[in-house]
Structure formats: C-alpha cells, structure tokens
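Subject — a protein and its fold

Tokens — whole-number codes for backbone shape
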Amino acid sequence: MRLGAAFKRLLCTVVLSLPNVVHAQTEMSESSPTPSPSCGAAEAIIGGTCHTNQPPVPSVPVIVSEVTGDTVYLRCSFESRPGGSLGFVTLWSRLSSEGRKEELKQETTVHPSTLIELDGFNLRLGDKIFCSCSSFFLDSPDVRSPSVESREFFAGIRLKAEARRVSEDGGRFEVEVASTVPVPCPGGSFSSADRCLLSLQLSTSSQDEGLLGPDLSLSSCVLDLAPGPCRDGVCSRALIHFSPVTDSAREGERTTNISVKPVVTQNVLWNGYSPEPVQITVQDVPAAYCYSFTDPHILTFDGRFYENDQIGTFVLYRSSFRRFEVHVRQWECGGSVHATSCVCGFGARDGGDVVTFDMCDGEMGETKPRLLLRNRDSRKSGVRITESYQGRKVTVTFSSGAFVRADVSDWGMSLTLRTPSSERDHTEGLCGTYDGRPDNDLHPAGGAPLENLQAFISGWRLPAGSSLFDSVPLHVSAPQTHKSCTCRLNPHMSSPRTQHQQTTSSDSTCSDHGITSFPSFIPSLDVTAEYFSSEEQPKTNRRQQRRSAETPHTPDFSSSTFRDGFQLQRRRNRRQIHRFTATHPSVSQSKLENFSYFFPEDHEAAVEEDVLPTWPTPSGLTQQQARDQCRQSVANSSIAVGCRPLLQESIISRCVDMCVTDLQLKDEPSWLKATLPLLENECERRLAEDRRRGEGHRDVQDVLRCPDLCNGNGQCLERGCTCFSGFGSYDCSAQTDQTPELSQLENVLCDVRQEDCLTVQVHGQGFHESNQLKCEFVKEKSDDGEWVLDAPRFVPATFLNEAALRCRLPLEDIWTPAGAGTGPLARWQIKVSNDGYSFSNSKILTLYDGACQTCSLDTDITCTLRERACSIDGKCYSEGESSPSTRCLTCRPDVSKHKWSQTEINNPPLFQPPPFDLSSFQEEDFIHQLRAQDPEGSAVQFSLVSGPEGASLSPAGLLTWKAAARPADAHTVHFTLTDDCGAETTASVQVFVRSCECLNGASCVPAGSGGYTCVCPDGFMGRRCEVDVDDCKPNPCRLGLCIDAPNSFSCVCPPGVTGRTCREDLDECLSQPCFPSVSCTNTPGSFFCGSCPRGRRGDGKTCSRDPESPVVEVVTPQVLPRPRPSGLSPCSRAPCHPGVRCFESVHISAGFACGPCPPGLHGNGQTCTNSGQRAVSAGANGQSRTHKSNPSPERTSASSSSSPSYRPGRKLRPESFRRVSLEDRKPTETPQNQTALAPPVHRGQLTSDLSAGVRWRSPTHQVTCTDPPCFPGVSCEATGSGSSRCGRCPYGYTGDGVTCKAVCRYLCGRNMACTLPNTCTCKHGYTGFNCHIAVCRPDCKNQGKCVKPGVCECPAGYGGPTCEEASCEPPCQHGGTCLSRNLCTCSYGYLGPRCETMVCSRHCENGGVCVAPDVCRCEPGWFGPTCGSAVCEPVCLNGGACLKPNVCVCPTGFFGSRCQIAVCSPPCKNGGQCMRNNVCSCPEGHTGQRCEKSVCEPTCVNGGKCVGPNTCSCASGWRGRTCDTPVCLQKCKNGGECVGPNTCQCPVGWEGLHCQTPVCKERCLNGGRCVLPDHCYCRRGYTGFTCAGKASRA
C-alpha cells in the first residue's frame, strides 16, 4: 500500500510494458479466429481461460560484505530473468540465541540486490544472517513469486581447527582464523591506503588447568589480521598452529578451548567483539622410563628386565624419529671372583647439542665425573642441567622432554632415561623398543628380534673411536624448531603442590624448543649457566699419566702390535681392593678440544662368563643372609616405606633382587643401598603421574625432599634438609665437627711464571662440606737463616669431595719475598678445618719465580738465583730487560743483581727536517710542528736555543712566531732535542718572510712552492682583488638609473615609481587629481580618471556643464585611501564592485587593483555607474550602496543587462541586498528565490573567479518550478506532464538554459579569459592593465626576473625558486658557504678561495696527526686535544700519573705497575689491606695499627686467648667457641654435670671425682657395700636396710 501515486506514475512512464507471456497470449488471440476472454493485467490466457501470471522465481541469494566509508554493509544479491519488468521484495532476518529467526528489515526494490548496515546494535558481529527474496511484475505488485532464502551468513571471525581430537605425541596442527567481514585498522577506520594490522590476543583454557597446567601450546599468542578485499566470503585470513603439551601426568582425555580475547579498537562494530572458541580434545600418551642400575641391571621402556655384564661403549637408546641417542660406557667395578661391570659415563646427543658426563678416564674410586657440553649456539640450546642431593643426582633435560639422570657413586653411576610420548614406536638400543610389547625388546639394529641376550648386547656395542665420547658427529646442524607459547586466559596462582613445578604461571610464556611439563619433586639446583660460561684447564688423563710412568714410551693405540703385546686384561686386582666410600663430587667442565681420552675397555673383546656365581660368597655370606640384609636396607628403607602408597610391590622386590645379585658378585656390604636411587626416581615418576592427588601424597613429597628424613640430625623444609650444628650433607648424615687430616698437596713447589699458583689443591681425609670449611695460611719468613711464622690468615675452602678440597691463597703479600734476594717468593703453612675451630696437621707450599730462581726439593727446599738474572724489588728480570718505569734503567747482573743499572747503549734523537721550505707573510702568525724520533722509542723534548724575536718552541716541538720583521731572505731557529736518558741532538730550521701584494684589504694564504692566494673581500675580484664588481649588472633598478658603489648600488627612479629598486608604484590618486565625484584609478607609473558626472563633460580631470542635458545630481562616493590591514590580503575585504575581480599587486600602494566594470556599467572597478540611472559602489566591508539620480515613487532594480535575474517591472527593495561570506556558500543551500549581480554561477555553487560576491534576496513572489534546474536568470516553465523546461540563456551567454557560458565578441588577449559577456579578465598569476605582468610569490631576488607565474629567471651565479641561492664554481669545500657568486665564506679552521686550505691551530704531539682544525688523531696509547695525555689501562691508582702508555709514575707511599700497592712498613697482617702510606684496612675480626690483633666477640673466657677472628685458644680443661665449656677427661657419671676442668657436680646420692660413688646416709653394716644411693648390698646371711639383721635359715 506504500506504492503511492507518484511511484505508480513513475512505473508507468519508465517501465510501462507488458510481460512477454501477455504479449505472447495477445498475439495468439489476434491470430486465432475464435474470440478470447478479456483477462486482467495480472492474468494470461492459458488453454482459453484466464490464469494468474506468476513472476519468475529469483536465484538463490548470496550474501557478501562490503565497506563504504567507515560503514560495513551486507549485500544480498540474486539473479532474475533478463528483460522482465520486475520488482523484488527482500527480507533480512537473523537467528536468535534460542534458534528462532528474527525479522530485521523488509525492502521493495527494482534492483537485483539490497543492502543492510552492520551497525553493531541491531546487527552485530557473531550473528547468523539470512536473506530471502521474491519477485513481482511492476504492473501487478500484488502477485509475488515464491520466496527464495540464502544460505546462512556468519558475520564475524571463525576459528577452524585442522583436527579437533589429537594425541599427546608432539604433533603440530593448524587453526584457520578467517573473518567474513572487513577488518578495521586499530584506529577504527577501514582505510585501504594505509597498511595496518588488527592484532588478536589468543588464549587457551584447559580442563583442570589450575591443577595439571596447560594442555595445549600455540605458535603465538598474538595473531595479526590484515585488511583486504573480500573473496569467496573471506575478507581476512591467518593461520596459527597448536601442539599438545608433552607432560608426565596420566590425565586421560582433556579438553582445551582456543579463544580470542575481546577486540580493542575505536571501531564501534568491532570493539569488544570476541569470536566463538574452538575446542580441542587431547588424548594422553604417557612417557616411558628405562633404568640401568649398578651391575648394570637394565629395565627397558616396556618393563623387560635383563643383566648386562659386558664392558665397552654401547648404544643405550636411539631414536629413529629424530636425531637423539644416548651412549654409555661400562667398566669393571669390583667383582672379587666374577666379572662385573658398571656404567661410568654417558653421552647424549639431541640435534646439535652433545653432552657427555663420565668418570671413565681413570681408576675406579679415584676419578670424579666431568661434564662436557658441546653446542652450536649456547643461546639456542635446549639443554638444562640440574644437580640434586649435593651432586649425587645429575639430570640433563632436553627440549623434547627427554632426560638422562645419573645417580653418582664412587664405583660409577646408575642411569634413568625418560623418553617423551612422541617417541613411541621410534626407539631402539639396549633400552628396547617403546611399543608396549616387552617380548620384542631384544631387537638389533635393522633386524628381527633375537633370542640370545649376549648377541643382542654385542649388537649394540660401538667400535672404538665412534662414540659421542670420542668425537662430535659430523654435519651437526640445528634441527627445525617451532615457537611454542602457553597463552593463559587469566593468570592464576598455582596450588601449593604445584609451586615447585618448573612450568611458568605467567600470562604468556614462549619457547623455541616446545612446551613440556615434567615437574620435579626432588629439590634441584639449575647449573646450566656454569657450562656455557666457565671452563677449566684440561687435565691429563690419569690412566695415561700412570702408564707413562710405568712404560718408557707412549704406545700407539691404533697399531695391531700394541693390541697384541699390551695384553689388555681386566684389572680386577687393582679395583677389587678399593674400599668404597660414599663420595658425590661436583661436576666440572673442561675445554672442548681436550675431551677425548683412551678407554681400554673399547679394545677388549666381549667375554661370556662360563662359571655362574654360587653361594656362599668368598667371605661366607649365604643367600639367605644376603636377602635379609637387602630387605632391611632396601625394603625397610625410608624411601620404600614412605613411597609404598605409590610404588608397586613388584618394583621393591626387583630392587631387593638387584641388591642380592650385587652382594653375590661384589661380596661388599657397601652395595646394600646402591639400588635406593631407583626407588627414588620411580617414586618421583609415580608422583608426577598422579598429580590429581598431589595433596594426598604430602608425606611422599617429604621423603623425596629429605632422604631418610634428615636422619634425625636436621629439619625437613621446602628445599630439603637444614642440618643441625655439627652435621652436614644432603641428608644430614655426616658429622662436620671431626678434625680432618692432610696427606699431601697437589703441588709442593709452584713456579709463578709457569703455573697458576693462586690456588692449591689439598688431599687428605675427613673433609666435610659446610659453611665453616676453611683453610689456614701461615706465612714463613726467613730471619737470619731461620724460618719465623707470621700471623695466621683464614680463607674459605672449596669442597671437592671427602678426600680433596681447593684453597685460594691470600691476595696480600703473595709475592713478597720470604727471605733475602735468593730465597723463594713465599712459603706457606696450610691447615684445614671443618668447623673453623679444630685444624688439621700442616703442609708447606713454596712459591718461586722460575725466571730468575731454581729451587730443589731435597730434605728441605732451597732456592738459588740464576746466573744471568736480577731480583729487584721482589721481582725477577732477565739480563737486558728494561725497568717498567723507564727505558734508561736495565737489568745488568754483572753490575748488580738487586738494583737497576744505567742503560749501556743509548742513541740520541733524530730530527726530521720539513719536506718543504718554511715561509710566512709579514704580520701573519706562523705555526709549524717540528718532528723527531728516538731510536729506542723514548719521548723527545724540544728546547729553543735561539731564533727571531717573539719565536717560541713547545717541549713537543710546536714552533710559533708572529712575522713582524720585514721581508728578508731567512730567519734561523736553533733548538735541541733530548730523550728520557739525557741523549741530546742540536738542529735548526729556516723560515722565510714574504710580502703580501693583495689589494683592497684582501688576505694572503700560502699556496705552496712559495706562492700564495688572495682572499678577496666582498665586492672585489681578480688575482690581486683589484677589480671592483659592478653591482649594476644586470640593472636592478628596472626603469631607474643604477649608480655603482663598492659592494653596493643606488637607484635614481623615474616619476611615478619609488623604492630602493624603483619597484614601488606611487599612488597619484592620493592627491585627488580628478574632478569631484569622478573616480580616480591608479596605474603603474600613472593614473586615469573616470567619466564626468551626468550633465557634465570633459576628460575627468576637468568637467564642465553640458548645456544639452537636464540638471542631474549624481552622488558618487570619493575613493579614499585605506590603510592595508596587517596580515590580511588586500582583497579580503572585497573593495571592488560586486562581480568585479580584485587583483593583488605590489606595484600599487593600495596593494590591489580592480578589474573592469560589467557591461552596461562604467567606472574604475571600485565604483560602477549605470548609464543615466544610478551608481552602485562597494561600501564599507564590500557592502553595496545605491545612489538615486532622480526620485521616483517606484523603485527600479539596480540590475543591468548583465544581471541574468533582471526582469522589467519586478520590484526589489534596497534593504533586500546582502553580502554573503564564503562560509555561507555551501552546496546544500537552495538557490531558489535568490539572484546575483555576479558572473553566472551554477546552482548551489560559486565560481572560482569570485573572491567576494553579492547575493540578492528575492521578494515574496514564488516561481512555479519547485526544483529549478535552470541557469540563474533563465525562466523555468512546468509542462503538463510534470517535467520542466528551461528558457534561453541571457544576453551575452550561450548554452541550453541549464548551463550558460559567457561569450566575448573578440578573442581575449594573452594571459586573459572570458569571464563575462564581452569582458576579458586576467588569468590567475597575471596582473596589469593588459595582463602582461607575471606575479611571483615570493618576489624574485638578486635581480631575478618573473617570467611566468611563480617562475623566476635568475641571473648568472644564482639559482633556486626565487634566485635566493648563490652558486660557486668550483663549490666551497670543508663546510664553506657560498655567500654570493663565486664567493665562499669558510668555516672555522679553513682558508682559501674555496676553503681548500686547512689551518691546524694545535700542535699534535706524540706522533698525532692533525686531521681537522683543532682535531688531532692520536697514536694508540695517547689522547687529548694535542695527544699530550697518555692512556693507562687500567688507570693509575692512588694519585699516580700516567707518564706514557701503560706506564704510571707513583706518588710516595705507593708502588706497582698501576700504583695499586701501598707501602706499609711493617706490612699489614692477618689479611689487612695497605690502603695508603702506613695505613691498614683490617678485615673483619682483626684490629690494630697493623691488624695484628684479633677480635673475638664475645670475648674468650677462662684464660682463653684470642688467636684469630672469633677464634679462641682455650686453656687446658676448657673448650668451646669462647672457652666457656669445661672439659672432663672422663665423663661425669650417674647424671653428674661437668662444671669445671675435670670437676663434676654430682646429683644427690652420688659423690666422687666422676660421681661414680653412691652415698648411703646410714652406713652399711656387717660387711655390706653401698651400691646405690641409700641402698646396701648385704653379705650372705644378712639382710635389712643397712644389713643389720641376720637372715633366717630355712
């Protein structure tokens, strides 16, 4: 019903046609002779009857999105039958959250598409949208075709995963993120010109994430969508990858949602939008473990158990899926009768990372493990190394989640391997095939499973020299890695049971090596950084050391004769007598190039044991006894009892069986607890798998953190055991208050020139790792041939193992000679203490300097001075060696061995004459650097002997002189050169003084070869600056006369112009030369007057009355000069007549000129007069004013024939005129009822030629056309059909009435355009009465000529847009500026016509070279403006001065190469530092002027003496830190308390020295004895309390 009359008429006029079916039926009816029924417009004849004509059904609509401006639309497009007069009804709907369709919009259209806005309110992102359409004939809109609906269109972003269900096997899968609508820029716009990205923040949320951690990782937490065109329903697409997190938990299936956080943008549609997440289900695949313990007993990944007693190097585990393998080395380990083997090291390779950890390069019990890490790039390494239980457990973890753990003992190590779930069906080696089938674990490389165990083991043995221990695999390259990130939705705190896990709980954590989650419940210390930064000196193979001492030559291991003759036998005898001790040394690292060694077990053939072990063992141990002992040590251990809720009974029984086998083979009780680490590792594995019940296994975690529950000697805390005083180790089992015993020092004699003597390794027994472990150093000094002890000094010791530690010598006085010049540098007595109180026996370390001393070790150490050497100030120097402070002193043993001697040979310095003659000009400053060199390299000093008056010579050789003398032949300068050692040379140079012949104040610059160059001042040129530059060429005065002057000019201007260059026009109209009321127009150089008023005639200057004309009074305002507003354009106030163009001009004082009046009007452009009617002028602010010539009751329009809106008889009021500003001229204004006295304009627009126009307000008369399409002033007539018709263009215009263009009778001249009928005006950029003057803004400079608008023609020597840039040929150098043509002004330090000559005002000393004015390039070791300051690295300390490079001159009280050593006499003691002359800074625990007094807080009591910091030496009978504890040699008995030396305070009822005698208050009678307090033991026959009564006889 909305189809109104207007719409129906439009349909009739535009698409009035009948459907094809109707035409076809009509033709049939015309050709048929039978009469046809009359059908309606919407009916057709079918079979002789009328039927409804159904419109064709449109095609299935298709919805696409598009952008218009900053708005997103959805377009529903469909196809219809071509040629039909059809309309369409479209219906938009969306699917609600309840699944119902909600109607959004219904629209009727004749186009095969329709739009709907995606506004974010009625229609939002995330909606599912449908579009349906039906058609109808335009002449029968009530009949519609069946409706056709589109497919669902999802508006927004969809996440589509490659797989929704994945396994935890390390796979990588894609997720497509696609947007069906255009993506905005972050600012909110949809601009396609700017390249921008919309960043989406991704996150994952896994089931039970707070307990089990994330289950998925993404390749990135940020995804960028780039705006682009929409194709195939997708406007932007990006890919992201996800991978399951490899972990150890047995978690079954878990679901994870990958979601997008709400979008943050300024676009209303997109802001806050969050797409639907995609859900991924991860199927758990557990990790597998392989164990190789003690003998070794091997438990494969699938649980098969077997024994391996062979020695050599084997492949324990190799992956066929990636480059990962583990090699092991096995040596003999203490079998008394039968052959036994144990693992002594492993090597693991993961891609480009190779790690070896072994102790196989020596004898069992004598070596410590050594870890080597060889990596292609430490910054990209995925290896992580941790230590637990103070180095007893060392774990190497790889990026894939695999790890190798070594439980270290003195006989070797036991190994635990973990392989991630991604390795299932991809493993081989001694650990078997990880496929869940134990029966096929004995699988050789590339073959079928074997039945023979020994053949299987031998098949995985590696040839000598081919293992990871011997060399790095060739072509080790970095495996392809993918970035993995855990993107948390909301960061949360982990539960207490997961705080120790090694995964991060931050919002986003990324890794280049994949994300794994394997928590550790055993406290560990990450020591990875130590193996990327620190290195130890490589140590010689101990086996090679021992064999080199036994054999005279080094054997060739590769020769067959060696293998045959050396008879590689198992060294049972040497190894079986070793007593095992529980030592757990820390790992260390050696240099990579020294990692290989000879491993003899690789060269021995595999031997099968023929005799099986039997019971009892050689020591008499039976099988039952062994099993009982193993049950007690293993099954009843704290780890087995504490982990029993998790451990299966089978694994505990397996460990007991291993223990029994070890006792049978080794017959040593020290192997009883060797399998306990297997229970620890297996317990940790079970606990990690059962993380859901972590809180229920709190006691199990305590057992793992604190082995044996700290043995009752400590407290179990979160990070392990905290031991009580007197106990140490990881389980508090070791006593630390025992006194250690020293056996030997690693080096008794140490040459400071050849060895590192700052540390010494001490060997002995009873060392315990504790905070109080320290070394005592007592320095021995020789006094008259006897050794006197200095005060003791204490330093912390580094614990290596129970039999070795490392001490660092005190830094102070370390090189002070122990005795006279022939004695050693130092002798130290070394002691060790575990608790800081009780010290061991002492060993002596002697330091000497092998450069000048030889020391021998006989009964006592004696040192002698070498023949050709000196010992000066406690340091050794060889013959001819110079003093560090000066080259003039040297070591000459024939003169003195303990003092410096004068250098024997010293050559004088050599002067280097200048390569050219030295010259200067009168009154000029002469500067020149003289150069010299000393043959020995000493510094050279210059001294002036004689020279011209005013000459000076610096010590560095800089000669300066002001040449005030008259020109002469030469002036001679005599000087001397002296080196550090006093050698002297005399030399001289000559300086010539020349005259300068430059004129007009020019300056002379030397140009070489005795010549010079004149630098001319401004305004002069020529070789001698004798030519005055003519500044009047070209003439800058234009029409005036130019008068030249030095570097300037002046102009004499003709009449009519003024200014410095005669470019300013004189306004003659200011003197009012015209007849009153006649306008005056100023022109360049002249003026003209307008026409005389009506009734007068003349030339305008003079007007006389015209007798033929009636008396008419014309009132014309006089044009008065107005000041030009500052900052505004002169034409901005519209000073000209409406419709007359205003031109700006610098040649007129008013600043503007008006164009000619419109046709029919006369005047100067400011005032235009109608012929005989009235004058219309521009009033204030450009407002029009009308002057009447005669009164009339009827006001006539002021329009002339040039006004297209003028109509005779039409009445207009003068007050209806108004001026319209540019802000009012908007294209949307309706121009009806408005006319303009201006050049014709199109409707609703203004021409570019109008700077200010006039708009006329129409009276109330209404035009019949409601929407005037015609040119202003052209009549509009309505036709009967409702359309309109325009009349002819106004006079002087041509066109169709809608568009009219002005016509000029004559062709407009150059630079002109026809803007009004028969009126030509200047084009933009031109001015003048005939538009011949081009306008350049800004004006052309330097006599440049404006030849085109904005184009200057520059004279020679100038360039640039306005000729402001001067040019110099050749150009100015070294930063000089071209001021005018070929005149350079030079920057500081440069002279010459082109600034080509550098003047170095500073003299560069010590070999420095002048490279720029005031800039010296110094030789290495020197710095400063003139290179006069030396560089000492490190700097001189304590006020020392750097004399020469790295040579310091020390003040009194300091010495040393850097003045770092202060002189204190006598020296500071007890580690005190000599800070300055005789001032000691004492360490904590010492005081006194020389730190000779020890401080004990609290003080020592009971006669104890303070002998060290907080160290008391107690008198006999006392002990303790402050000697406050009495000592009773025999323990007080029966509850007595030791209250003094050997003095017991007894309880009631006891007495005696040790409270050993009971007290009976009543004496025992009849021979009875007092055996307890008040208790008598009676003889036979007596009884009673005091044995007083006799016993009755039975």
Observations:
- The radius of gyration is 56 Å.
